[in-house]
Hints:
With 97 residues, the chain is of the alpha+beta class. It has helices at 3-13, 64-96, and strands spanning 24-31, 40-50, 53-59. A hairpin with an 8-residue loop joins strand 1 and strand 2 (40-50).
Amino acid sequence: MSLSSSRDSLIHLSPPMSCLIRGSLIRTVHDHCPCHPNGRYVYWYLSINHGGRTRMHKLQDSHVPFIRKALKDYDRWWKTCRKIFELNTQIALSKEA
């Protein structure tokens, strides 16, 4: 398989950009709360860095699976991009020779 076809297959297999989120999923637990039947609250936050400042976005429990998948897709996309960058470099250097 040529370098170009390897690169093209990576591009084809990468997740769509519309499904990517860059950030971190954070779970916080507040124990010993007298107003909650179980004595604890669980909160989910999406932590995103905007221009050097971290923003925390509180999530509804129903959104957590979508956010978790979007974060994993971003990680997979970024790893794929790095492989594509390496292949692009190899292709460019082979054309110079």
